[in-house]
Amino acid sequence: MGRRDRERIKRILAGEETPIAIKARERVVGAGVSAVKSLSLSNQIQFLADSLHSGKLAPGKLQKTLKDNASKEMRVGAAKMSKKGKTPTADLLLEEYRSDTEFQKLASEIGLDEEWFMELAESECQRWRTDN
Questions:
Q1: Domain encompassing residue 120
Q2: What is the rounded CA–CA span in Å between residue 74 and residue 106?
Q3: Model confidence, pTM
């Protein structure tokens, strides 16, 4: 082991540098996420379902991601409706969810049923009414 290797190890242990393996993994994961994002919605759902069923994706991780994204999507949907002059309602916010049966099936597999989405939509409508 040379001087440069010892210095690099010292910097890694001190937290001043990220190990090369972690940097490479982050790049690979980033490329994978970009590839999935470029797919159509139905293909994204199919990819996530396949990953979940094969054990490559943990149900808890998918549930957390869907919860975070659903909250953001509800906020965006309410903002778009208000810009169009419509009052956001839970039914209007849930139109996209109700139209995609494959997504409903995937979400229910990880514990996010229609009731959870309904509560989220109602809370977003309530938040929108108090803000406006």
A1: 40-131
A2: 18
A3: 0.73
